[in-house]
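Technical note accompanying the year-one report. For the benefit of new consortium partners, we illustrate the data format agreed upon in the data management plan: each record pairs a sequence with a structure-token string. No post-processing was applied to the example shown here.
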Amino acid sequence: MTRTVWPKEALTSEAMNFLDGIHREWCLAAHCRRDSDLGMTKAKALVDWFEFGVRDRNELLSLLSEDFSGAA
């Protein structure tokens, strides 16, 4: 089976600061430690959504609040 590799652009420090602020805000609102399993899962999801092309802060916060995996 052939594996397709989608090249990703490197995240800039500006993008990382933007994502970090969103992650901090979500964790504070959710009473979740940033370094907890849930916090780390949400951080990965946040980066995934950003790399997928979602750039709106409110939309990213909303997506983090959604429960796509069955675990909140």
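Partners are asked to follow this layout when depositing records. The chain has a mean pLDDT of 89.
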